[in-house]
Hints:
The structure is a single chain. The protein is α/β, with parallel strands linked by helices. The protein has helices spanning 47-54, 77-87, 103-113, 118-131, 147-158, 177-194, 205-208; strands at residues 4-13, 21-31, 36-40, 62-67, 70-71, 88-91, 165-169, 197-201, 213-218, 221-224. The protein has a six-stranded mixed β-sheet. Helix 5 packs parallel to helix 6 (177-194). The longest helix is centred in the C-terminal third of the chain and has 18 residues, at 177-194. It is globular, with a radius of gyration of 17 Å. The two termini are 25 Å apart. One adenosine-5'-diphosphate (ADP) binds next to strand 2 and helix 1.
Amino acid sequence: DPVLSLSGLTKSYKRGTPGEVTVLRGADLEIAAGEVVALVAPSGAGKSTLLHIAGLLDTPDSGIVRISGQDMSGRSDRRRTATRRRDVGFVYQFHHLLPEFTALENVALPQLANGASEAEAQARATDLLARVGVAERADHRPAALSGGEQQRVAFCRALANAPRLLLADEPTGNLDPGTSDQVFGALMDLVTGTGMSALIATHNLELAARMDRVLRLEDGAITPVE
Ligand code: ADP
Ligand code: ADP
């Protein structure tokens, strides 16, 4: 089964009002195990809406979301949340790290919440931080880190519980171009090194070209980009 399968998704906001905005008009997508897929979309095309539906943070008006072959449609909020916490990692343009905790603690906390022991969580956090080149920054709080370092830590946090699927929304969008390239490379190494699948939204076509496939979201539908 594909790790993520979206079929015939439709979504409108403010349905049935004069301000109705139709964002998705039958969007289809499949991501196989280990595949890293780029999603490019003009601003306002519905990229965040699509990622939120794929990550079970929002529901479509119609269509089916399957995670590892399992149809999520009829599931209770509680079961959707459980699936999201186990199977999906999120990365945003801004890091959303907890300011009062160190880098290491930010990566360890989701593991502790998931039942890991303190020793396991610390060991995995240390390993993840080392893999993205910020091991020596582990004991600093986010405010003491550069923008690029903050994003690297956010990637580690997203992967802390070893999800099958990473959903990233402009993960290097707030960094300057030189830093963005390096930090993006760190994300790609992390993802390919763990064999997970990823859907990564970006405006940067050079970064997109480094992924296995490039898809475009436009006019509410998803099409391949050659
Ligand atoms: P993108 O991430 O591609 O910029 P979004 O998914 O955020 O696009 O938004 C797609 C469209 O839906 C935009 O026109 C946006 O203004 C609109 N939209 C997004 N969220 C809401 C909402 N909660 N209520 C009404 N309109 C929304
Ligand atoms: P937690 O397990 O930490 O309580 P949740 O299960 O609520 O987190 O959410 C999982 C991920 O989705 C987190 O990375 C969180 O930042 C993100 N998230 C939760 N709600 C929203 C939302 N409404 N919009 C965007 N991202 C969200």
